[in-house]
Design a protein that fits this description.
- By secondary structure, the chain is α/β, with parallel strands linked by helices.
- Helices cover 47% and strands 18% of the residues.
- It contains 8 helices and 6 strands.
- It has helices at 24-35, 55-60, 76-85, 100-107, 120-123, 138-150, 153-171, 173-191; strands at 8-16, 45-52, 67-71, 88-91, 112-115, 130-133.
- It has a 6-stranded parallel beta sheet with strand order 3-2-1-4-5-6, with helices on both faces.
- Strand 4, helix 4 and strand 5 form a beta-alpha-beta unit.
- Helix 1 crosses helix 6.
- The longest helix is centred in the C-terminal third of the chain and has 19 residues, at 153-171.
- The termini are far apart.
């Protein structure tokens, strides 16, 4: 199922690694902190980085002892293929009102880690379908990576199933449309 390695796959669709608000430096520092607490044989995570990578980002990967791969661009079906093989997602953005990638990953049953920004508190139930990290807190993120690293297959499967069910209930278009109409009507009534 998971290529040639038996590790938990964490997908990180960052888009623009060079854009400070996308949070690459916090994710990078968290991975360094995480890996420094384990021997290479104890690390059970494999990272998949997706986005516009510059040479300096690729060079920085040399500091990783975690396994990883990276892609500058993926076609839709390629991204969906990686989602279907992954176990967790991380959106390290520090200025995000609502991450479409978070919702998208959850519809594939992937629990997600987000910093405490925008709608994270409305869609992530701590420890059930992901983790909310204190803003810019690399040690909080590193601690969550340690939790994922030590999760059993059964714990991971339960989390993924909860996430998938949650996404089906919360993100289907009829429910979204109903919430939007209720919001609009509430907002319209408060203006009058």
């Amino acid at each position: 199922r998971k290529a040639s390695y038996n590790k938990k796959i964490i997908i990180c669709p960052i888009q623009k690694f060079n854009e400070p608000r996308k949070g690459w430096k916090y994710l990078y520092q968290s991975i360094i902190d995480f890996q420094n607490q384990f021997s290479k044989s104890e690390i059970n995570l494999h990272f998949v980085f997706i986005g516009n990578l510059e040479k300096k980002h690729i060079e920085s990967f040399k500091n990783f002892r975690v396994s990883y791969e990276y892609f500058n661009y993926l076609k839709r079906h390629e991204l969906e293929n990686i989602y279907s093989k992954s176990d967790f997602g991380i959106i390290p953005s520090i200025q995000e009102w609502a991450s479409i990638s978070t919702n998208e990953m959850m519809t594939f049953g992937l629990p997600v880690i987000n910093f405490m920004t925008g709608s994270a508190k409305n869609i992530i139930i701590q420890g059930k379908n992901g983790f909310i990290i204190n803003l810019k807190d690399i040690y909080d993120l590193s601690d969550k990576l340690k939790i994922i690293n030590s999760m059993s297959n059964e714990e991971m499967t339960q989390m993924k199933l909860f996430t998938y069910d949650f996404a089906l209930k919360k993100f289907n278009s009829e429910i979204f449309e109903e919430k939007l109409i209720n919001f609009y009507e509430t907002d319209k009534n408060s203006v009058n």
